[in-house]
Amino acid sequence: METRDYSMLGESGRLAVETGLATAEWYHTQVPRKEMKALMQRADGPAIRDTIILFAGMMVFAVIGVALWPSLWSLPFWLAYGVLYGSAMDSRWHECSHGTAFKTRKYNDWLYQVASFCMIRNPVTWRWSHARHHTDTVIVGRDPEIAIMRPPVFFKLIANFFGIFDTIDGIKRMLLNASGRLTDEEATWIPEQEQPKAIRVARIWVVIYATTLALALAMGSILPLMVIGLPRLFGAWHHVMTGLLQHGGLADNVIDHRLNSRTVIMNPVSRFIYWNMNYHVEHHMFPMVPYHRLPELHDAIKHDLPAPNTSIADGFREMWPALRRQLRNENYFVKRDLPESAKPYREDFHVAAIAAE
Amino acid sequence: MAWIDAIATDDVDEEDLIRFDHDGKTYCIYRSPNDEFFCTDGLCTHEQVHLEEGLVMDYEIECPKHNAAFDYRTGEALRAPACVNLNTYPVKVEGDRVLIEI
Ligand code: FES
């Protein structure tokens, strides 16, 4: 396989369309319709509870952080606030973009807007880019959300634990959009009638950030930025840690989520922050199932999936050496064994990836 | 346009849908929570994924791929990423049969 071209307008993307890898029909575990219908049912209760906990937590940590500022004692509170702002909001952004968090659509939309702002991801642009991530998961040149490109650039991966590149990219795009323009790639996946919305949101955000910045300058203190903006950096590590595990070190250019996605059993705090996206194979196979039903979905289909990683550390133990091997051989990936009860991988669908193993 | 005998009323549960293929085209027939029947094209207008695995809630069908939603009575696209409405078709019930006009 030749060098990968991750641009949405490049050679790999063109090849994926030509070979039928793009917008292909993906493998699904068979689940009886009645059972699946029950799993897909929406509810407001769990997400209202979690959202109250989230915002109450943010408020308490921020108030204590401000009260103790600039003492070092404020640090743990800022770190806790940061993780809720810079990581929990990532999973809220994600779940609400699917519209599955709440039953009531306006609650989804409302939390989606707040979370998009915290993550500096334009809510219009990213809705379409995330749709593409689901159509063409880890298909090179088609999926705009591939977190680890091959060969991996470790310096970038590590810098992103502090949100550095994502934030720079987010700000650059926000300013560009606010000036009334879109990048060429954005223009390829946002339908024309939606483009003005992307621009309007970017303009509102610029006003909010400018006001925060002006306040910081007037006060001669970074305190306002500790509440708005900077937590996107110092709170990003948790969502990057969990996000890299989603697909890192696994196959690309396949159409079976069991080969390119990873389910990891996690501690309850991380699951709250991550809103159960540790059940990642399950989420990709059945994106209509709300986050709070994913543990049940996992039980219903685990006979057909590779065994989950048993912890975040276990996931990294599998992924990190694979990434290092990709430095020497970018075609390398971890192919997990399936249990005997599972339907085998369709090797004929994945000739290129499997042959490269 | 002709009336086609498509399914039996019992073929589909309330607040659910069933796929119906005819003459090289594919449709979805819905039974609402109030026991009415409706029919739309079978494929989502976003990326042509079949709606048969989707979720019916009240009068909406949600696409299984990227969760676009449509009002299946009118075909109206209610939620991104779909922006184009679904085609709908007249339906009538005769005895225990559901007929669609296509
Ligand atoms: S194919 Fe239906 S929402 Fe994308």
From TrEMBL, chain A:
Residue intervals of the Fatty acid desaturase domain = 70-310
Keyword Ubl conjugation recorded: no
Question: Species lineage, top-down?
Answer: Bacteria, Pseudomonadati, Pseudomonadota, Alphaproteobacteria, Rhodobacterales
Originating species: Maritimibacter dapengensis
- Return the Pfam families for the record: FA_desaturase
**Keywords from the named record:** Membrane, Transmembrane, Transmembrane helix
The name this protein goes by in its record: Fatty acid desaturase family protein
Superkingdom assignment = Bacteria
Under the heading PANTHER family, the entry gives: DELTA(5) FATTY ACID DESATURASE C-RELATED, FATTY ACID DESATURASE 2
Q: Give TM segment ranges.
A: 52-72, 204-228
Automatic annotation (TrEMBL), chain B:
Which NCBIfam families does the annotation name?
A: MocE_fam_FeS
Source organism, top-level taxon = Bacteria
Which cofactors must be present for this protein to function?
[2Fe-2S] cluster
InterPro entries given for it?
A: MocE_2FeS, Rieske_2Fe-2S
What are the Rieske domain coordinates in residue numbering?
A: 4-100
Protein name listed in UniProt: Rieske 2Fe-2S domain-containing protein
Q: Give the Pfam families listed for this entry.
A: Rieske (PF00355)
